[in-house]
């Protein structure tokens, strides 16, 4: 298989990271002849994808927040499905974002190419019925956690554990000394990294709370500095919001700068999401926070079956990293939790020990890396062809 054509659909920045890792691995295996089309963000663009539309068009979070965006979302679903059918790729790889990607798959009647979905819906946390639904839509599933395959195999869906692509990143290899020197941060100054999320709705809800937290922490820790990593889709809004914050906020973009900031940081305050796992691999003592519209929270809480939101805590089945969600996501509680990490060496040591446990759990056998393993699955599925007529 010298030059397959892969149609990819990522729906948010974390999926963009996974898509880029997969694309790089496919190029290593197939050479520069491999072709890509579909939907993705900046990382996938760097690997050669010309996205049908900006990723920001479909990165929406929360039931209430979704309603005003429905016309645009349905238009993007239609355009994506039509483009996939017209492209006639060797395979379509949908990445996370099941609400969007399931609707795309449902529109692909008559397709001749297989669909591989990357990242399992968290059926072990809520709405287990999604496992059967997914089995009726796609031909193969790649999962990131070793306990996930049985949830889907029982419905006849071929499933392969490929590991989490975060472990392929340089999250734990940042240059903290370079970062502090570049931004004029004294070696003994406290540095807090603040990560308010990558979606418009997230930053609108979290930045005001994080700003009040920063002000309270700055009064307790004179000379505190702030690093605020962001992504291009919301960078302008983040820069404007943090302009009035204390701590001379440094708004940075790009993985290299972010990982250097991690290495330089004494602690982090982050929106719940994939970045929490990145912080874990970088061993940055952290507090995880999140807020959604109260109606969205009410709906989700009635369906949840897991005790935790952060993947580190889920994997360890204990609250190793503080989670301050919804009504607990207040400046007062966030300030107290971060202050503990800035002043209590025992709390820092306990959290780093937990991170080390997770890192060991995520290692793949025989030295494999997730991107290469995922690429091999996609190529194998192409060779086998569609499971269903």
Q: What topology does this entry show?
A:
Layout: E1 5-10, H1 13-30, E2 35-39, H2 42-46, H3 63-66, H4 70-87, E3 91-95, H5 98-106, E4 115-118, H6 130-135, E5 140-143, H7 149-153, E6 159-161, H8 176-182, E7 191-195, H9 200-220, E8 225-230, H10 235-242, E9 250-253, H11 255-264, E10 267-271, H12 274-281, E11 286-290, H13 294-303, H14 311-316, E12 323-325, H15 331-343, H16 345-362, H17 370-384
Parallel strand pairs: 1-2, 1-3, 3-4, 4-5, 5-6, 7-8, 7-10, 8-9, 10-11, 11-12
* Mean pLDDT over all positions: 89
Task: Give Rg in angstroms.
Answer: 21 Å
Shape: globular
Q: Please give the domain count.
A: 2
Strands of the widest sheet, in order across it, are 2-1-3-4-5-6
Query: By CATH's scheme, which homologous superfamily of the largest domain applies?
Result: Glycogen Phosphorylase B
The ordered string of helix (H) and strand (E) elements is: EHEHHHEHEHEHEHEHEHEHEHEHHEHHH
CATH fold topology of the largest domain: Rossmann fold
Task: Calculate the terminal CA-CA distance, rounded to whole Å.
Answer: 23 Å
Structural class of the secondary elements?
Answer: alpha/beta
Secondary-structure arrangement, i.e. CATH architecture of the largest domain: 3-Layer(aba) Sandwich
CATH top level of the largest domain is Alpha Beta
């Amino acid at each position: 298989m010298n030059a397959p054509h892969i149609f990819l659909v990522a729906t948010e920045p974390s999926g963009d990271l996974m898509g880029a890792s997969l694309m790089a691995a496919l190029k290593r295996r197939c050479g520069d002849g491999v072709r890509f089309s579909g939907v993705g963000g900046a990382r996938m663009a760097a690997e050669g994808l010309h996205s049908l539309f900006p990723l920001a068009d479909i990165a929406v979070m929360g039931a209430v927040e979704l309603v005003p965006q429905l016309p645009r979302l349905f238009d993007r679903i239609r355009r994506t499905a039509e483009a996939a059918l017209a492209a006639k790729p060797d395979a379509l790889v949908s990445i996370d974002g099941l609400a969007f990607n399931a609707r795309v798959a449902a529109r692909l009647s008559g397709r001749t190419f297989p669909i591989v979905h990357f990242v399992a819906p968290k059926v072990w946390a809520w709405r287990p019925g999604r496992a059967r639904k997914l089995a009726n839509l796609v031909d193969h599933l790649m999962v990131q956690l070793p306990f996930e395959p049985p949830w889907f195999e029982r419905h006849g869906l071929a499933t392969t554990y490929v590991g989490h692509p975060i472990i392929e990143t340089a999250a734990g290899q940042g240059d903290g000394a370079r970062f502090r020197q570049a931004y004029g941060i004294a070696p003994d100054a406290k540095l807090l990294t603040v990560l308010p999320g990558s979606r418009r709705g997230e930053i609108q809800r979290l930045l005001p709370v994080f700003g009040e937290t920063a002000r309270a922490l700055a009064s307790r820790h004179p000379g505190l500095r702030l690093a605020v990593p962001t992504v291009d889709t919301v960078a302008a809004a983040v820069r404007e919001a943090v302009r009035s914050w204390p701590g001379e906020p440094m708004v940075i973009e790009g993985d290299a700068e972010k990982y250097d900031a991690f290495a330089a940081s004494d602690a982090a305050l982050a929106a719940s999401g994939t970045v929490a796992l990145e912080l874990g691999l970088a061993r940055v003592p952290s507090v995880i926070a999140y807020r959604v519209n109260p109606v969205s929270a009410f709906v989700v809480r009635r369906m949840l079956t897991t005790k935790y939101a952060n993947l580190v805590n889920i994997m360890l089945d204990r609250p190793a990293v503080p989670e301050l969600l919804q009504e607990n996501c207040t400046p007062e509680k966030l300030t107290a939790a971060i202050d503990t990490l800035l002043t209590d060496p025992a709390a820092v040591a306990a959290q780093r020990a937990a991170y080390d446990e997770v890192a060991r759990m995520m290692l793949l056998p025989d030295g494999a890396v997730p991107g290469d393993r995922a690429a091999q699955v996609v190529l194998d599925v192409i060779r086998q062809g569609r499971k269903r007529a």
